Each structure stands twice: as C-alpha cells, then as structure tokens.
Amino acid sequence: MLAHTDLVISAWDGSRLVGFGRVLTDYVFRASIWDVIVDRDYQGQKIGTEIVRRILDHPTLQHVELFWLCTRRPGFYERLGFSAKEQTGMVWSRKNSGSQA
Ligand SMILES: CC(C)(COP(=O)(O)OP(=O)(O)OC[C@H]1O[C@@H](n2cnc3c(N)ncnc32)[C@H](O)[C@@H]1OP(=O)(O)O)[C@@H](O)C(=O)NCCC(=O)NCCS
C-alpha cells in the first residue's frame, strides 16, 4: 500500500507515529486523500488539520484542480473548505458485490 502511494504525510512525537494521511494522484487534475487518522491520545491538537493542509499546500500538488475524499467525519473536512455539494460519490465493494472477479 505505501509503496504505491504517491504522497504520505505523517506526524511524529519522537519515534511515535501519531498522525497519518496519504494521497493518490495524477499530479494534474485529480488527487484523492485517504486514511487521515490521528492517534486518539493526540486528537484535538490540530494535527489532523495540519496533515490535510500540508497535503493541499504540497508543492507537487499545486496543479491539482480537485481533491476528493470519502469520510464518515464530514464536519472535520467542512472546516477545511471541503464541500459535499460538488460531487456524488459512489463505491463498488468487492466484498459486498458477491463477485469472485
Ligand atoms: C478526524 C481526525 C483526523 C481529526 O484530527 P484531529 O487532529 O483530532 O483534528 P484537529 O485537532 O485538527 O481538529 C480541527 C477541528 O475539527 C474539529 N473536529 C475534529 N474531529 C471532528 C469530527 N469528527 N467532526 C467534526 N469536527 C471535528 C475539531 O473540534 C477542531 O475544531 P476547532 O477548529 O473548532 O477547534 C481525528 O479525530 C481522527 O483520526 N479520527 C478517527 C479517524 C477518522 O475519522 N478519520 C477521518 C477519515 S474517514
């Protein structure tokens, strides 16, 4: 998973990994943000906000016109300027499809 991820942003307290977020992108039109997570003991200290800001501000992503993500925590991303109005997301789950393909 990490080897095929285009950009990883991580937060550390010494040698302890306390925050993580990753991006898959074509570096031009689209970037999808995945797995933004902050250690429970470190939540509420703006680490999640900083991870998302560093993704949006990253020098290699400055041409990307649309950042896209799936979340069960829309409130967190709305504060960062994300909107649910632009697109309707749909998913196909191999696990739930019954497909063996
Ligand atoms: C959601 C998550 C990444 C936020 O990280 P964090 O470092 O705790 O968040 P921040 O400290 O940067 O919070 C920024 C603001 O968002 C708010 N916020 C945090 N989590 C929120 C949530 N789930 N819903 C609404 N608002 C939220 C905070 O209250 C804070 O508000 P403030 O600016 O008024 O103080 C973190 O709580 C987490 O890892 N949760 C579990 C995993 C998860 O849900 N990941 C999301 C991808 S599906």
In short:
With 101 residues, the protein is of the alpha+beta class.
List keywords for this structure.
101 residues; Aminopeptidase; 4-stranded mixed β-sheet; binds coenzyme A
Helix content: 10-25%
Mean pLDDT: 94
Number of domains: 1
User: How many strand units?
Assistant: 4
Order of helices and strands: EEEHEHH
Low-confidence stretches: none
Bound molecules: coenzyme A
Stated plainly, the CATH topology is called Aminopeptidase
Provide the β-strand percentage band: 25-35%
User: In angstroms, what separates the terminal alpha carbons?
Assistant: 20 Å
How would a crystallographer describe the biggest sheet?
4 strands, mixed
Structure description:
By secondary structure, the protein is an alpha+beta fold. It has one domain: Aminopeptidase (3-Layer(aba) Sandwich), CATH 3.40.630.30. The protein has helices at residues 47-56, 74-78, 94-97; strands at residues 7-13, 16-25, 30-38, 66-69. A four-stranded mixed beta sheet has the order 1-2-3-4, covered by helices on one side. Strand 1 and strand 2 form a beta hairpin. It is globular, with a radius of gyration of 15 Å. The two termini are 20 Å apart. 12% of the residues are buried. The model has no long low-confidence stretch (mean pLDDT 94). Coenzyme A (COA) is lined by residues 36-38, 43-49, 71-73, 75-76, 79. Coenzyme A (COA) binds at residues 36-38, 43-49, 71-73, 75-76, 79.
